[in-house]
């Protein structure tokens, strides 16, 4: 038995509208919204009294999805430090291939994105960067150059 596919990656955010705007600016498309609560939600995530809003975003090719989740109850558990460095254990980053890395960075900066370092050239193949997006998540961008 094998898996069929990777369905999505979930990101818990404190400002759902800002996260949706950020990923829409990146080029992701809104697939749907839902309010999640009830026993099935409690049992699935192992918390009591879950009430959350989720938004599903998909890449233009339809193959990859992000689930953006805003928990109303129970209260969100914070992370320490607030914006962990790239070498922190756990979810590291989400990477997107883009056509124009400079234009993408400029558009995402209007949504609060900050570069962690610089745009770097990897051999003559890719231009790459890491930036910090909504809820402190690290978003990597890659522009193929060769």
Essential attributes:
alpha+beta; single chain; 146 residues
If you had to describe this structure to a student in words, what would you say it looks like?
The chain has 146 residues and is of the alpha+beta class. The protein has 3 helices and 9 strands. It has helices at 16-26, 39-45, 101-109, and strands at residues 9-12, 29-37, 51-58, 65-73, 94-97, 114-115, 120-122, 126-132, 138-144. Strands 5, 6, 7, 8 and 9 form a 5-stranded mixed beta sheet that branches. Strands 1-4-3-2 form a 4-stranded mixed beta sheet, sandwiched between helices. Strand 7 (120-122) and strand 8 form a beta hairpin. The mean pLDDT is 90.
Q: Distance between termini?
A: 38 Å
Task: Outline the low-pLDDT stretches.
Answer: none
Shape: globular
Structural class: alpha+beta
Q: Give me the number of helical elements.
A: 3
Q: What is the C-alpha radius of gyration, as a whole number of Å?
A: 16 Å
Strand content: 35-45%
What are the secondary-structure elements, in order, as H or E? EHEHEEEHEEEE
The mean pLDDT is: 90
Helix content: 10-25%
Task: Give a quick precis of the structure.
The protein has three helices and nine strands. The chain is α+β, with helices and mostly antiparallel strands.
Give the helices and strands, then pairings.
Layout: E1 9-12, H1 16-26, E2 29-37, H2 39-45, E3 51-58, E4 65-73, E5 94-97, H3 101-109, E6 114-115, E7 120-122, E8 126-132, E9 138-144
Parallel strand pairs: 1-4, 5-9
Antiparallel strand pairs: 2-3, 3-4, 6-8, 7-8, 8-9
